Amino acid sequence: MKTLILVAHPRIEDSYSQQFLKHGALAEAATWHVLDDHQPYDIDHEQALLRAHDRIIFQFPLYWYSAPASLKAWQDAVLTRQFAYPSLGGALVGKDLGLAISLGLPEKNYAVGRPEQFSLDQLTAPFQAVANKVGMRFLPTFIIDRFGSQTAPQKQHLLTRYRRLISQPTLGHLANDVDWTVSRLQVLQSQLPADQAQRLGFVIEALETGQQDLSDLTTTLAMIRDAEDQ
């Protein structure tokens, strides 16, 4: 799976969060494409990038409850009817569309009855509408919650989740999360000295055993439900 990350950030060189995430993106061999560096847009080039990737991530800081102007300008220029409409070009049908949004305020503030009054799902509805219009699968929104206030362990957890967003084919299922984690640990294991690799092997084995136990439990519960329905 190939992932294209479209970054809209007018001051990206000053953004610690974007530079931090860039390392994770490149580690997963994703294409890092900063929109503000490519204006005016070469439409053919931008559309070719979209065609060549399976998952598209719009990545941006939340500016006045929306994305920076460069992302809207890019959408208006690149997502032409002949290219994007399923009844015409249909170039995006079946691809994934995700959002990676950095917040300056606490994520919990974005809800009815909270200080911002609107949920992030409500604020990102136009992007969901775009995905629906062009036949893309809309992924759960990835939130970077006040990056500057996070501890080092929190940032590492954020990076792991971000790398999963970029490279894990199916998101939102525990079994797929475990498979992805095991695959990354196996790569790390191959790079370690023998004694450390052996210890990491025990961790990998425990994860795989736990996953199998969970699968067996799920199967048993399904059989019980089927029996009750008969």
UniProtKB/TrEMBL annotation:
Protein name: Flavodoxin-like fold domain-containing protein
Source organism of the structure: Secundilactobacillus kimchicus JCM 15530
PANTHER family: GLUTATHIONE-REGULATED POTASSIUM-EFFLUX SYSTEM ANCILLARY PROTEIN KEFG
Keyword Transferase attributed: no
Flavodoxin-like fold domain ranges (all copies): 1-163
GO MF entries: electron transfer activity; FMN binding; NAD(P)H dehydrogenase (quinone) activity
Keywords associated with the record: Oxidoreductase
